[in-house]
Amino acid sequence: MKKNLLLLSCLLLSWSGFAQNNVFQKTYKIANQYVDYQQVIQTSDKGYALLGYTESANWSDITLTRTDKNGVVLWSKRYGTDSLDFPGSMRATRDGGFVISGNTASIYNFTYGDVIYFKVNATGNLVWSKGFGSEDIDENYTLEILPNSKIIIGGMTTGAFSQSAFGSYILMTDSLGNIEDARSVKIGQNNNHTIYASDKTADGGAILAGSVARGFIYDPMLIKLRADGTTEWVRQLNMPDAQFVFGVRTTSDSSYLMTGATAGAANKGGAIFIAKYSKNGVQQWLKRYDSPFSERGYDIAVLSNNTFVLTGRAGIKIDANGSNTYNMALLNANVSDGNLNWAKIYGDTAKSAYNQSVIATSDGGFTMAGLTFGFGDSTGAAYLIHTDALGNTPNCNVRNATNRFVTDVLTATDSSAFREFYGGAIVPVQFHQNDITLIPNQLCLTVGTNDVLTMPFSMKIYPNPASDKTMLELETGGQQAFIRVFDRTGKLYKQLQSASERIELDTQVYPNGIYQIQVQSNGRFQRQSLLISK
After folding, report:
1. How far apart are CA 75 and CA 123, in angstroms?
2. What is the DSSP string of 397-458?
3. Are strands 481-487 and 492-498 parallel, antiparallel or unpaired?
4. Cα–Cα distance between 352 and 328 in angstroms, integer?
5. DSSP per-residue string spanning 201-235
6. Most exposed: 61, 121, 413, 472, by fewest CB within 10 Å?
């Protein structure tokens, strides 16, 4: 017995030094409903705020979920009107709350063709809500909060407001959502263009990115705004193939990176493009990351070591009809030249997974949010991944893809002509707010040496060490518990659900070694180690 206790102590020390970062992959569902996360930001407590939407047969609502740093749900709420509502973008406020923008079908246009934006406090309760629209279609894709607390909202509008078939609009409001400026920006001689992404700039303004039509081709565009919201400069990249822009970020040297999709050399449905511009709008370099499959870049996070990570989707196989199966992708490259350092792909290899957001986290890793149809859930579940500094989630749905991509240098000329038109109106919006219950599924979790988990309920394991069986005793108040057993490599050996406070585990088939038992119940988390010794 003393020998086993000594072995258990040694193995516990071995486990605690196994990983330097807590990394995980998780999915989240609402019963009988589709859930998709489209943006993740890190909160001051090192947890996450996740923006997305939930959808059933006849309606959709915007959702906001708060988790701790291990993806354990703290609360989740949905917001919307009595019609279809979809998210656009989200930013954190200085008081711990969030401003969220999106689209609704409840004002003028009944095809989710008007803009909504609202603020919630740190616990997700509504503070105020506003709507903006015309009698034509007005769609939202991005939002930014400037250092002076002004809010910038951008997207696409049609009809009289844009003086075109469809054009980009820019709203500027005060911190309470009251509109101070509303205008459409017409790029060059063409009518059709849309703002998809934004970021703050070093001088207190904002950089907006999107796409502008040139005949039957779409070009990338950048719009630089001053701190007062006025337009400083505009750039349109005239390229030989269609380019669609989905992400933009400011770098540490005050330049700008933007990413999206372009035609691939293999012509398999697209490749990732990435461009760098100086703070004055001068093109620095333009690159394409291509492979035999279809790719698309969505978001960028800039790192302190003069590199950046780019996330998006990567095709992993093509069926007989030419349709791609996609997984999430994460690429690391140099800010100075765009040359690729490493790349990883994540997800179920049999089903598609999509990702639109990535952040660099305070522990040196990366977190991505998206959607998966894999892991036994073909109806679609929200997908959250936290990796280490090299994009790894050890032994858990991740593959090295560095050699998959070919980096090409692209060329393009710039143009900078634009005109502006003013219009649109603010309108009142009736908003509802409801709590929702998410069903989590932990695909893997490796806990690092410096990770302190919240353990608000008691758990006992006996006997420990065990041979053929062991008993879990939980003080969960009869609440449903999700129980998972992992080995030292992070491999999931067993998972079950139970509302019982006494659960027997059959350990006869487990090889000798140390395992971690993790229990999640009603938003709370507990873990303990178990030694199997026969």
Report:
1. 8
2. SEEE-GGG-EEEE---EEE--EEEEE--EEE----EEEE---EEEEEEEE--TT------S-
3. antiparallel
4. 8
5. -TTS-EEEEEEEEETTEEEEEEEEE-TTS-EEEEE
6. 413
pLDDT tens, 326-376? Answer: 999 999 999 999 999 999 999 998 899 999 999 999 989 999 999 999 988
Query: Is the confidence at residue 236, as pLDDT, over 60?
Result: yes
Output helix, strand, coil percentages for the chain, rounded to the nearest 5. 5, 60, 40
Per-residue pLDDT for 533 more than 80? yes
Question: What's the number of CA atoms in the CB half-sphere (13 Å) around residue 447?
Answer: 24
* Strand positions, DSSP E, 146-216: 151-159, 164-173, 179-187, 193-200, 206-214
Please choose, from the candidates 315, 274, 326, 317, the residue with its C-alpha nearest in 3D space to the C-alpha of residue 298. 274
Distances (CA, A) of 311 to 88, 187, 206, 354, 413: 18, 28, 22, 10, 26
Query: Distance between CA atoms of 374 and 164, rounded to whole angstroms?
Result: 42
Residues 350 and 327: their CA atoms lie apart, in Å, by 9
> How far apart, in whole angstroms, are the C-alpha atoms of residue 374 and residue 250?
34
